Amino acid sequence: RQESEFVSDHLHEWIDLIFGYKQRGPAAVEALNIFYYCTYEGAVDLDAIADETERKALEGIISNFGQTPCQLLKVRPQRSLASPPRL
Known about the structure:
mainly alpha
């Protein structure tokens, strides 16, 4: 099954938001793609929180909001214009 032309034309925009350079920083703010701070990878070290109530509260927040995926791309890679290999 092939994806629609619309999806093919816009898939890179979704990748930029979820895994790419629009996940954090000024590009994320401009794209209205920001989330609660503790949902980002590495934002909170739960093991370092001594106060059990505070730790459980943060665990609950993360559980309810979810976690933002790892940011895989800090900049948008340039698309290769080379022809795909022939099979």
